[in-house]
Amino acid sequence: MKIKRMWRKGLLILTVTVLALTLFATVGWTGDEDVEYMRWNGPPVDSLTPIKYRMGSKIVIMEFPDIEKYAWRLGAGMGERYPAEEVLEVNGVPWQDSPYAEVIKENLTFYGESGSYFARHPELMEIVLDKRFNGKGAEVWKLFSQGKSVAEIKQILLGGSEKKQPGTGSSNEKPSPEELPPPEPGEVSVVLYLNQKDYSVAREGTWHRASLDAAPVYQNGRTLVPLRGVMEQFGADVKWLPESKQIKVQLGDREVVLTLGSTEAQVNGRAAKLDVPAKVVNGRTLIPLRFVSEQIGMDVVWEAKTQSITIKQKQK
């Protein structure tokens, strides 16, 4: 029965793979990271859930149109082909923190002792279940093949990542304000971190710690940042217009009006296009990072290593 069940599941995975070739359009990534993006190219759906993988040396993000329906296959390929394939994130958060963590854990060993990487090497489950090691499969396997124990592998990988240089931090730790590069004179700088409310802000040449009501998130191929918390650091006046479900931002000689759920905005009375609409997440309005850069006139820099977003503007 187990072999029959495994055969059926393998057939279903093959079917989904064939469907992916016809229903997903592969495009070059032009967003925050250098990755391959597989956009949904099938019938219109209400929502899409991005799943981030590492496949060999590439990062691949695939949009799933019905994650509840296809969640059963998440991590199945990882169990068979680790470290060549790794699930990294589900809808912008580490898979270990997602609602599908238990499904993925079960699939890691689904193929049994002969097929599953983790059934053959159960000691490595401790590492793969730790979100700090997401994307490090090749390094884990290399060290494991050299005879290193799990404890030694963790010490080596964490020890290497903790050696930070000023202003760069690491993939798992953000630099303290003292480690950030000195801000330019007359410049306001804000450094945000994905999925973290704590951030750094520089005024009058000094960095300070601060906290947002909502953390920046990564959704549908774009980084969304909290509107009010970020804009007010630059002296903007932010007003909510409940009747029209609009947000008005007055910043210097620019007036920007955003409408929730719409990709149309107004900048000084002229129409402007957003990549993705402004939306409310956990009661807070988030706007796409590119819009901040192109329409409100700020310099924005994304750094994948520290998962950080730096926003700067010279003060007049």
What does this structure look like?
Strands 1-2-4-3-5-6 form a six-stranded mixed sheet. Strands 9-8-7-20-19 form a five-stranded antiparallel sheet, covered by helices on one side. It has a five-stranded antiparallel sheet with strand order 12-13-14-15-16, covered by helices on one side. By secondary structure, the protein is an alpha+beta fold. The protein contains eleven helices and 20 strands. Strand 15 and strand 16 form a beta hairpin. The N terminus is likely disordered.
Summarize the structure.
The chain has 316 residues and is an alpha+beta fold. It contains eleven helices and 20 strands.
Which percent band covers the strand fraction? 25-35%
Give the integer mean of the pLDDT values. 76
How many DSSP helices? 11
Counting DSSP E segments of at least 2 residues, the number of strands comes to 20
Q: How are strands sequenced across the largest beta sheet?
A: 1-2-4-3-5-6
Largest sheet: 6 strands, mixed
Question: What proportion of the residues is helical, as a percent range?
Answer: 25-40%
Q: Given the C-alpha coordinates, what overall shape results? A: globular
> Which structural class do the helices and strands define?
alpha+beta
Q: Give the termini separation.
A: 73 Å
Low-confidence stretches at least 5 residues in length (pLDDT < 50)?
Answer: 1-33, 160-172
What is the CA-based Rg, rounded? 22 Å
Topology:
Elements: H1 2-23, E1 24-28, E2 36-40, E3 49-55, E4 58-64, H2 67-70, H3 76-81, E5 85-90, E6 93-94, H4 101-108, H5 112-115, H6 117-120, H7 125-128, H8 137-145, H9 150-161, E7 187-193, E8 196-203, E9 206-211, E10 217-219, E11 222-226, H10 227-233, E12 237-241, E13 246-251, E14 254-259, E15 264-267, E16 270-273, E17 279-281, E18 284-288, H11 289-295, E19 299-303, E20 308-314
